Amino acid sequence: MTKKKDKKQKSKFKKLIGKLHLWFGLLIGSIVFFISITGALYVFKDEIEGVQRKEYIYHNEPDYQNKEKLTIKTLERLVEQQVPEKYPIHWANIPIDHALSYQFYYYERNEHAWNYFDEYPVYKLAYVNPYNGKVLQVYDEKNGFFNIVKMLHWSFLLNSDWGKWVTGIPVLIFVFMLISGIILWWPKNKAARKQRFWFKWKNIKSWKRKNYDMHNIIGFYTSFFALIFSITGLFYAFFFIQAIIYVVFSGGNTQYPDFSYIKTTAPEELRTETTLDKIAQKVEELYPDAYMFALDLGHEHIDDHEHPNFEVYVRHLSYSYHKNSNLIFDKNSGELLHTRNPENKDFGEKMISANYDIHVGSIFGLPTKIIAFIVSLLCASLPVTGFMIWYGRKKKVKSSTYN
């Protein structure tokens, strides 16, 4: 009797899971399809832009090894003369490899705008020869293909503060669907198991059966990676996901390291035209094998964000952001006040740093990007095959009713 009760309870549970899986799928299927396709389109952004922009990424200055670079402040003024904008330059990316161009960014965010295009009054990138200050090329990143794809994926081109909820909630439901899909997939017996792991279509002609197998088998093999990509995407939509990831991977720490107490103490009179160059020189001395570092140029911006200290972000790898160092300098004297390298960070911090790379598949370079691309396309197929299963059953019920 107990076994029969257990079977009935399991059957009722699976029926409930099946109904929720179906109705949630019909509710968010088109959104999941859209998010998956835009995610797939974005995966190879760096590789494609690297080819398109190759002649500007390298400045091609003759005999540059024997020449002096202009100061950062001088370069800033020359860029503003050649690329006049209403707003000041926000930051510069400075490569360690002296053969590469400097990158100057105009970037402003209006947090009160309701859509993406008004939210960012300017987002431009200028590639600059650091030896003569010539602007080699300017890209309007705001209206660029990949950035629009990214913001469609992120927030449907709505304000990013609340638009991320519009995509985040469906992805949260999709996580439930992936888990419920595994429960529904789980075979009852050995005979069913054979059909669940791979396609057995030798004697199968029905498109419905083939579609059903595609949904189940692709769903099963995709589910592990899809869960990873979904959860790392939810990281940007919900703070509680960030908190959970940090607490779990840091071994129970509930307080993320905070260094906002480290502030500039030197008088403003000590700041000179070459303070930023002093900082840049120190970074290059400490990390000669790094890829590049970012320097905020210290202007006020319309989003009114606070900088409690002058932090320099060092990116060690060209293909990924997860390996990075964070340095704090006195912005007036240029003295190094604090260093936090990858080896100083707990595993929770490392996971937070790696979240973007895991999400877009760049964590281990091209191989993981290919995985991300394929998984995104397969995720896009699940709402389609799922809808066809439902539509096929609905059509069968209608035809049997009329007969």
TrEMBL record:
TM annotation in the entry? 20-44, 165-186, 218-249, 370-391
Pfam family of this protein, just one? PepSY_TM
Question: Which superkingdom, per the lineage?
Answer: Bacteria
* Keywords attached to this entry: Membrane, Transmembrane, Transmembrane helix
Cross-referenced InterPro entries: PepSY-ass_TM
Q: Return the PANTHER family for the record.
A: IRON-REGULATED INNER MEMBRANE PROTEIN-RELATED
Can you say what this protein is called? PepSY domain-containing protein
Species whose genome carries this gene: Paenimyroides baculatum
